Amino acid sequence: MAGKKFIGLDVYQDTIAIAVADDGVDSEVRHFGTMANCPEALHSALKKIGQGGSELRVCYESGPCGFIIYRLLAKLGVDCMVISPSSMPRRPGDRVKTDRRDAQTLARLLRAGELVAVWVPDEAHEAVRGSYCLCLRRGVTSAGARLILVASCS
User: Fold this and answer.
1) pLDDT at residue number 141
2) Dihedrals φ, ψ of 29, to 5°?
3) Contact assessment for residue 110 and residue 81, using Cβ atoms and an 8 Å cutoff
4) pTM of the model
5) DSSP states of 75-133 as a string?
6) Does residue 118 contact residue 81 with C-beta atoms inside 8 Å?
7) What percentage of the chain carries pLDDT values higher than 90?
8) Which of 10, 47, 55, 136 could be joined to 102 by an S-S link, Cβ 3.0–4.6 Å?
9) What SS3 string covers 17-48?
10) Which residue, among 3, 49, 7, has the nearest Cα to 24 in the 3D structure?
């Protein structure tokens, strides 16, 4: 067995930056590359990273792209963690923010065990939440939106 590889993904609508940290605190965290945000490209990259039988552990920050990547990786049998951006430790004065750097930070913190996962809703929960948010965007009050959801779920 080739050990574990800790992978940080910095996910955007069009691209994903990937960084890899090998098992062991002395190993360097390296930038693997930036690719299109599509299932085929991500699957291909993970196959390359996992060559030799390495166990893959992946993390990314929750965001507007939702939990599609989490569900894809779960289907592929890859251990994945979604974290809240607000829980990421930041150094004071660290204002330089790049995709590459963010992916490397995620991989490093995942390897160190310093990240806390958020609850990932199943597709049914996410659909209900989406309906609730849609009602609120349309100007329905919060109480009215709850009544609509209760009526539609009954």
Assistant:
1) 53
2) -90, 125
3) yes
4) 0.78
5) HHT-EEEEE-GGGS---TT-----HHHHHHHHHHHHHHT---BPP---HHHHHHHHHHH
6) no
7) 50
8) 10
9) EEEEEECCCCCCEEEEEEEECCHHHHHHHHHH
10) 3
Tally the residues of the chain: 154
The two tokens of residue 107 are 């991989």
CA distances from 20 to 79, 93, 106, 130 (A): 14, 25, 9, 33
SS3 for 148? helix
Give every CB contact of residue 134 below 8 A, 6+ residues apart in sequence. Answer: none
80 is written with which tokens?
Answer: 């994945």
Burial of 152 (0-12, 13-18, 19+ CB in 10 A): exposed
Q: Is the pLDDT of residue 146 over 50?
A: no
The candidate with the shortest Cα–Cα distance to 107, out of 122, 121, 88, 94, is: 88
